[in-house]
Specification:
Layout lengths: L1 H11 L2 H16 L4 H15 L4 H10 L4 H51 L4 H8 L4 H13 L3 H7 L1
Helix pairs in contact: 1-2, 2-3, 3-5, 4-5, 5-7
């Protein structure tokens, strides 16, 4: 079965073999049935697992003289994958940005508590707090900043 050939070729990183198997599937699709849908799914799989950019996949397809319709489907699938990847990247970026924002707020809260209690926070201590990224640790330090008797006892908490 051509799909299995594609998957075996993907494990070996053999793009040309993956495309030849897809070409065999395209020939079956020309005979009708739901084979075209399988070809499109296979092409999407190839694009997602290929060790090269989509542009090179399309160039190799042209070199193998694959049907223009299949190349167009591949270009559509590549565009869709690109959009999905970009969307995922944006979402991940937003999540990372939110996480960094919460982290900075927690760091600021610790530093502000120390400033309120002791007027001045030594630069070295301020820098050490900025390097702490664990949220629960920062919460604990915030409590310690509120409760500690002097800046030295707080520094021991670090």
């Amino acid at each position: 079965m051509a799909v299995l050939r594609v998957m075996r070729a993907a494990r070996g990183g053999d793009l040309d073999e993956m495309l030849k198997a897809a070409l065999d599937m395209a020939a079956a699709a020309a005979r009708g049935g739901d084979a075209r849908m399988r070809v499109t799914a296979t092409i999407t799989y190839i694009l997602a697992t290929a060790p090269v950019p989509a542009k090179e996949v399309i160039e190799r397809m042209q070199k193998l003289r694959m049907p223009e319709e299949l190349i167009q489907d591949t270009m559509s699938a590549a565009e869709l994958l690109f959009k999905e990847g970009r969307q995922e990247g944006r979402q991940e970026g937003r999540q990372e940005g939110r996480q960094e924002g919460r982290q900075e707020e927690a760091q600021d809260a610790v530093i502000q508590a120390l400033e309120i209690r002791f007027d001045r926070v030594p630069d070295g201590l301020r820098e050490a707090i900025r390097h702490i990224t664990d949220a629960s640790r920062l919460r604990g330090l915030h409590r310690a900043a509120i409760r500690c008797t002097d800046i030295e006892s707080f520094a021991k908490e670090l």
